[in-house]
Amino acid sequence: MALSRVCWARAALWGSAVPPGLYVVRRLQFVPSGLTWGAPRSSKLHLSPKADVKSLISYVVTKAKVINGKYHRFLGRHFPRFYVLYTIFMKGLQMFWADAKKARRIKTNMWKHNIKFHQLPYREMEHLRQFRRDVTKCLFLGILSIPPFANYLVFLLMYLFPRQLLIQHFWTAKQQIDFLDIYHALRKQSHPEILCYLEKVVPLISDAGLQWHMTELCAKMQHGTHPAVHDILALRECFANHPLGMDQLRALQMKALSRAMLLTPYLPSVLLRHRLKTHTTVIHQLDKALAKLGVGQLTAQEVKSACYLRGLNSTHIAEERCRTWLGEWLQISCSLKETELSLLLHNVVLLSINYVGSRR
Question: What are the residue boundaries of the Letm1 RBD domain, all occurrences included (predicted)?
């Protein structure tokens, strides 16, 4: 009995030094000098460390979701207006992060396979174009946030001026419609000025037939008639060289065209010309990719976004009318050479100013 107590005591002392998760078995052996303890024989539990980590992570994630749900319900119940802003902001961050990851995948694929921008499919080209504009706006906010404690002021400015400082991901549904209407109203202010310039250059056109076509087109614009595709394409020679070629445009014309394209007009003439060329070239490349894809493959939102980019206020126009208008635009754009892109630039006004439903 005493020997068994001693054995249990020594086993308990040995077991206290063994880390948790192991079972230690001691064997009592008979040797010539007497009794002695054999080497410990351990057997591990059937729970791997990886399983323990996964279980812990799953538990933490579940608890975090529960706490987050309670927090959302608390905000929605006690601070409903703030909760709406908070929800829009969080969803906007998620969408912007998804856009960034997609843009990175596209860029990586371009570098890996040596693909140029104009060789991409339409949706990837449009995604990169829009993401660049969004990043530019976000970088401006980042620069404003650099000084100490300036981030608090930036949050206030974002709340007061969401149209100027935030991208569309952070706009409410109502703000998207209202802000797009405001932007279109701003570019519509330049339409009469652009048409006036077209009338002034009629005497400078050397060909009598082209003079007549330009006069007829300006008269249709003034009387509220939507021009046909062939009426616009008949003037392509005027926009390839003097007086309406891209390199022959005057500073005031470029400022008006910049406003029509929602680009800043407050730049030197050299930079204005470069920006107009770059922007028009990108749209021309998008048009070629879209013609390959087909307008019928676009969703309703994609059609309206494509029309708005090209000068039509599509927020208040039916989807089918938008598809028809976009088809006319592609018919003109895909017929033009690179030297005739000035016509595509002016087409933002010519094709949209009198279209049914666009006079808002």
Answer: 186-360
Separation between Cα atoms, residue 97 and residue 91, nearest integer Å: 10
Tell me phi and psi for residue 31, to 5 degrees: -125, 165
Mean pLDDT by 10-residue block, N- to C-terminus, for the chain (360 residues)? 44 44 43 47 54 78 80 74 81 93 96 94 96 91 81 83 91 92 94 93 90 92 91 92 90 94 93 95 96 95 96 93 95 94 95 76
Structure tokens at 54: 């996964």
What pLDDT score was predicted for residue 359?
Answer: 55
Q: Please list the residues that pair with 42 across neighbouring strands.
A: 24
Q: What is the reported pTM?
A: 0.78
Measure the CA–CA gap between 102 and 104, rounded to whole angstroms. Answer: 5
Looking at residue 45, its pLDDT comes to 45
Listed in order, strand segments (DSSP E) in the chain are 22-25, 28-31, 34-37, 41-44
DSSP, residue by residue, 148-211: TTHHHHHHHHHHH-HHHHS-GGGS-HHHHHHHHHHHHHHHHTTHHHHHHHHHHTGGG---HHHH
> How far is the CA of 90 from the CAs of 87, 140, 354, in angstroms?
5, 20, 40
Dihedral Cα 107, 108, 112, 113, nearest 10 deg: -40
Per the listing, tokens 């680009």 go with 263
Angstrom distance (rounded) from CA 145 to CA 151? 5
Tokens 């969803």 belong to 91
Return the pLDDT at 34. Answer: 47
Residue with tokens 């279209």: 355
Contact criterion met (CB below 8 Å) for 117 and 285: yes
Collect contacts of 198-204 with beta carbons under 8 A, ≥24 apart. Answer: 198/244, 198/346, 201/238, 201/243, 201/244, 204/242, 204/243
